[in-house]
Amino acid sequence: MGASRLEQTNALFRKNLVIQRRACKTNCCLVLFPLLLCSVIGGLQIAIDRSSSSSPEPPTHFDCGCSNVSVDGNAFGGLVCPSECPLPRAPRWPPVLQIPPPEYRAAGDGLFPFTDLPDASCRARGTCTSTFLVTGGNQSFVRNVMDNMFFPVHDASVNLSAGVSALSDFVLATDGHSEQSFLQNKCIPNLTLSYPIQYGNEIANQDVRCTEGLMLWRDSSWLINDELYRGYYQGNDKNKTDEIAAAYDFLSSDQGNFNLIISYNASNDYDVYYGAEDPVPLLNQGGSVQKPHSVQVTRLANMASNAYLHLRGNGLRMSFDFVKGMPRVAIHYLDRFDISPFVGKLPFVWTMELLFPVILTNMVYERQKKLRIMMKMHGLGDLPYWTISYCYFLLLSLLYVLSFMLFGSVLGLSFFRKNSYGVQFVFYFAYMNLQISFAFLMATYFSSVRTATVTGYLYIVVSGLLAEVLFRSYVEDVSLSRSWITLMELLPAFSLYRIIYEFSQSLRVENYMASSGIQWIDMSDPKNGLAGVLTIMILEWFLFLLSAFYLDHYGSLRNGTRKAAVLVRTCIDGNRFQAVQQQNTQLQEFRASVEMERTDVIKEREVVEQLLQESSSGYSVICDNLKKVYRGQDGNADKIAVKGISLSMSRGQCLGVLGPNGAGKTTLINMLTGFSKPTSGTAYIEGMDIRLDMDKIYTGIGVCPQDDLLWENLTGREHLMFYGRLKKLKGTSLAEAIEQSLRSVRLFAGGVADKLVGKYSGGMKRRLSVAISLVGDPKVVYMDEPSSGLDPASRKDLWKAVKSAKQERSIILTTHSMEEAEVLCDRIGIIANGSLQCIGSSKELKDRYGGSCVLTVTTPAGKEEEVERLVRSFLPAANRVYCVSGTQKFEMLKEGLKISEVFRAMEDAKSRLNILAWGLADTTLEDVFVRVAKDSDMSTVT
């Protein structure tokens, strides 16, 4: 059993902690990068502020936002939004009816001949009603309409928790001096409406008092016109003012017809539409201040229409949502303004996206250097790897976001200060999680760090520009379906741009309820789309993580489907070995070509078939007809790297795999270690199928790959500590195992173990790779050319370590050194052209494929012919293969050769022929290798 997930997580966490501690300067620079952006923007703001404050003349244009204005010298606290400012959206506010101030309202003061007006004493008390005059052809019908002009309130207090939108049912009015009010036919004592309103970052309840609206009948329209004229003040004598709020002429209206004429005050004195506390500017398309009469007509017509619909009894009602001006762009001037919302969204978007290529390249680096698969081959599961990697990048992202918000606020940028910090953090946190998952997914498609880096930064630049040029125009196009906007926001960069856009846009248009920026209450506003963006990011985050995990585990959708199909078939058959054997499409091909193979290869294949029939055996490794084919590209033929290799290894045995370059040795090791998937066939490691149980297999194997897969910024000891923890070592046992491994490969003395691997020589890295493969007592160890690049002394020490390690485990070793194979390997298999050519012990191979001996004789010059006659006297079939300066070599077949006769003959002729030296050598493993490789090439050509 390998380490638990908790132990794996602990090992990976400790390793990453060491790496990040050594890279702390880089991380600090990355986290502090937002300071650069905020400093530039803050510096520009300070420069603009100083330039504006030193100017001797006031600015000739309004600041963006709205400015206080006054009418006739009376400062009412009104606001004007000039045309220089952009206004893609209006603030939420119900339409407000303009009525005369209490001191100017019509009363029975002798100016009018009618007695139905309130007493003039109401002016002193401020209780005069707001008078509306009504006439029409059908008096009874019109009087019924008059009674339903105002939405009735029967309770002493009404709390509108839904906000200002709920006020649209009530006739909200303002007189320009006192507080706002709402109109009723009859006001109950202390009758008020209460609704929530934002002040800065706080939400408070706003109370609106009741004002009585008096509907008075007049017999004709000319009487109304006369009364309106009399009520309007003459010249500058405002003491003569007796103003009527408005007048209606219903003409021939009845239950089936609705005709209406509205009279209202459209005087130029109302150039600004304002209230006492919460003024609301009305903007037309040109950007100038719009006169209130357009809203006056709309509000007055709405009152009459709702009253008429009420009489019809159909339950219908016409409600306002909110008023708005036409969208427009900004006209920029060099006057003083808050630069943060106008510096543009791109700098903020690009700054937030900066971590994407960082995360992407880190993930691709581990794929390119094969460190990910190296950790996996030593037992690191997918869940601990993803958890630690994700947590690290999330922590880095959180520090980055907090740095972004902190520096922006400290430097006084309203983009950060006026928007709710809580709302900002939630959206930035959600986006950073999405960005991490998106980088994880994209990392599965790259194998080169350079390509990933270029692509990552290109994505940042291009997506930001597309968002600014294309996506922004769609967001501001009110005629475009919101579904298209939602579809575009599926690209994470567009989601981020929408967030930055809304945060920035909230500062361009002042919130006319004494607040600014995006607050929590704005999350429910469908106009800004923030709730939808948050939902999209959460769903995409989950989808991207799931897809990244799937592709990392299976490599592609096809591989995952294939593995699932194999697993289903195995479950149906009930016997894994039998199911796999039935899937072997190469069995008939083997039967047809069995006569062409050597006896030892055939015997090995029969042993494998026999082992597959047994439920358990003492064999650690069983390869069943493994085959690997690389598909040809661009019209090239397929390349068969491994052609149906079958072999077996018992525990405590070392198998050497020899072969020329390109023979398929490394491909075989890669299939057994999970580096690549077999095209057909399979292998069983400790009874587990490499196609189905590779994760379990990894917990019990050690690997020394052909290339040194090491972290440059970790020491040799730290490498062994990490891999030792993955093998469940801890405490003193871990320390002892590390010390023993370092001593066995000569990396202990001189402090070499505590130096960074980046400073190691090639031989030192190779020895460390061997030590890593042996740490933790793995059951099966793969070594791909472990001694390459080592000096003779280091090679001898390495051989000692391998000899000692193979006592209780199986070792598969590839090498080009015949000496190494003879010293370390119990059995040797020679592979050529992707096929297993022969297998057996060194002595068996020499006996079976050597077949000859070499006799070397050295004499003075001129004695060569006599020596040749001597050799042919006791072995006529001997073949002289070498003759230079008295030294001759004869190749003799072992068949029929008696070694004793050779020795006797040479001793007898030593003095007679003046033989200086002679020797008889058996066939070497190198000779066997050359002969087998040559025979394989000849058979391939044939």
TrEMBL record:
Transmembrane helix recorded as keyword: yes
All residue ranges annotated as the ABC transporter domain in the record: 621-858
Compartment(s) where it occurs, according to its Swiss-Prot or TrEMBL record: Membrane
Protein name: ABC transporter domain-containing protein
Similarity field: Belongs to the ABC transporter superfamily. ABCA family. CPR flippase (TC 3.A.1.211) subfamily.
Membrane-crossing residue ranges in chain numbering: 29-48, 346-365, 385-413, 425-445, 530-551
Keywords, alphabetical: ATP-binding, Membrane, Nucleotide-binding, Transmembrane, Transmembrane helix, Transport
Pfam family for this entry, one: ABCA12_C
Any GO MF annotation of the entry: ATP hydrolysis activity
